[in-house]
Amino acid sequence: MAALLHDVGHSPFSHATEEIFPEDLNHERMSSKIIKEKLEHIFEKDEIKRSGIRKEDIMYLIYPEYRYDISEKDEISFKILQQIISGDIDADRIDTSQEIRIMQE
Question: Which pTM value belongs to this model?
Fold first, then answer.
């Protein structure tokens, strides 16, 4: 779910227009804010509750500066997942490089 929602805070034209955000706001923080303020109803659905997915976990995976009560064990595990979602070699970059390769062929 974090992978699906991590870019929901992007403005049009993605990173190119991120400069228009206020200095303390990036697309990860904006995504976290949208999840908290606009998508909260999704996390109230029985199916999501049964899955164990928590809004706070998703927000933390997307925006690590978001702090909440998390166990040390979970925090270590989440650090690994954060690198997949938003790291030096993350899912976005792998996907984008694949698209570029296909377009070049």
Answer: 0.71
